[in-house]
Amino acid sequence: MRPAIVSPFLAAAAAVLLASPAARATVTVVVNSVPIQRLNQDNSTAATHGMPTGSQGLNYADCATDVKVRFTVTMAGLPDPGSYVQAWAGPSDCAPQAARTAATAACWPVYSANVAQATASTIDINVQDIVAQAGLTSTGLNLTYARATKADCATAATRIPGEATLGIYFVVVPAAGGDGASVNQPFKVKLAGPAAPTGVSLSEGDGLLNVNWTPAADSTTQGFAVYTDPPVSGGDAGASAGDAGLCSSAVLSSGTPAADLGAYLATTASGSTSVSATLTGLKNGTTYNVAVAAKDSYDNTGPLSALSSSTCGTPAAIDDFWKKYHEAGGTAGGDCAVAAPGASLADPWVSYGAAGALVVLGAALARRRS
User: Fold this and answer.
1) How far is CA 349 from the centre of its chain?
2) Can you name the residues that pair with 210 across neighbouring β-strands?
3) H or E element, residue 28
4) Is the pLDDT of residue 107 over 90?
5) pLDDT band of 208, cuts 50, 70, 90
6) Is 13 part of any domain?
7) In this structure, is residue 7 part of a structural domain?
8) Domain of 344, in residue numbers
9) Of the candidates 189, 210, 227, which is a domain's last residue?
10) Residues whose CB falls within 8 Å of the CB of residue 211, separated by 6 or more in sequence, listed in order
């Protein structure tokens, strides 16, 4: 007979009486805090991120940075001394034996051992283990626990590009085997960010670049992140002439997930309809590659936009009209006739108002070109 499970985060949080008092089994699973307690491997608090309102969410960064989720499992009245509790993950209930059997499996183990029969046990489950096998069919699931790695994060993101619901199931398994009973902590999981923007273009200024783009049609977009190579903070990497006149960046075209390129992040823009950003604090005379990625409500960052000749820019000092005019010898401050001392109105450096200034500026620019 399947033991009863009690969970404080389920509506029916009360002990269930089975056929006889001897058959009672109560297993309480307590999540330390709401939202869930997310920790780094050194037990420090993990960085927060966006998630859908009212739900527990896991994103790509949780997986890539090896965050773990902490549970406290309290057990009482297990059906027999040989019964035990295991932790499994899956899109549906892992209590039936079929869900944990090779040919029909829908779940995978996420904890290296059976949970000890103790008054209370602290169980840390790695996000990498939770998502590593998501989206696999029964024949592809590994039913023997093996520690997942960061590489599994990107692989899982390709199998579940959208939002998915996974549960951590604490399953009471009878000593004789067969169906168990479980309590479930559900998670919303999204590992892949929105599609990349297109049409990225730049205009240059004094120590700055104006960046424009066209957002992709993706309902999950919440904002954008702009990356530069070299980084705004400085660095040795940079743009270079590529094939067919294209700009190139070994960093921004490497296929590395944008979420792992934090050192190259220049700025962000909020809102799904944002189409531009200004990068300031850049070094004049340095050529920058620029790529843009979209972000979603989980703070996932999608793929980077493609590099092209229009995504390379070199900030430069801008000489305004009056600076050029005065450098050329003009002294006017308004629309009156002026002449340098000793010059006549026939002198080529004499101007009258804006028209004369334009002549002077044109002459100065002509000399620069020659």
Assistant:
1) 59
2) 203, 278
3) strand 26-31
4) yes
5) very high
6) no
7) no
8) 321-369
9) 189
10) 200, 201, 202, 226, 276, 277, 278, 279, 290, 292
CB 239 within 8 A of CB 287: yes
> What is the model's pLDDT at position 74?
79
Q: Among residues of the chain, what percentage have pLDDT more than 70?
A: 71
- CB of 183 within 8 A of CB of 7? yes
**Per-residue pLDDT, 246:** 54
Residue 266 parent element (H or E): strand 265-270
Residue type for position 201? S
Tell how strand 164-173 and strand 181-189 pair up: antiparallel
Highest mean pLDDT among 63-77, 176-190, 276-290, 306-320: 276-290
Alpha carbons 228 and 304: distance in angstroms, whole number: 11
Give the domain-ending residue among 143, 168, 189.
189
Would you place residue 270 in the very low, low, confident or very high pLDDT band (cuts 50, 70, 90)? very high
Domain count, the chain: 3
Q: How far apart are CA 267 and CA 126, in angstroms?
A: 31
Model pTM score: 0.71
> In terms of domains, do 180 and 217 share one?
no
The answer to whether residues 364 and 308 belong to one domain is no
Sorted by sequence, the CB contacts under 8 Å of residue 213 that are 6+ apart come out as 197, 198, 199, 200, 201, 224, 275, 276, 292, 305
Are 236 and 343 in a shared domain?
no
The tokens describing 168, both together, are: 């951590």
φ/ψ of 304, rounded to 5, equals -75, 150
**Residue-level pLDDT at 42:** 96
Do 209 and 356 sit in the same domain of this protein?
no
Cβ count near 200 (within 10 Å): 21
Residue type, 195: A
- Over residues 79-96, the mean pLDDT reads 89
What amino acid occupies position 337? A
pLDDT of residue 331: 67
- Indicate the residue type of 101: T
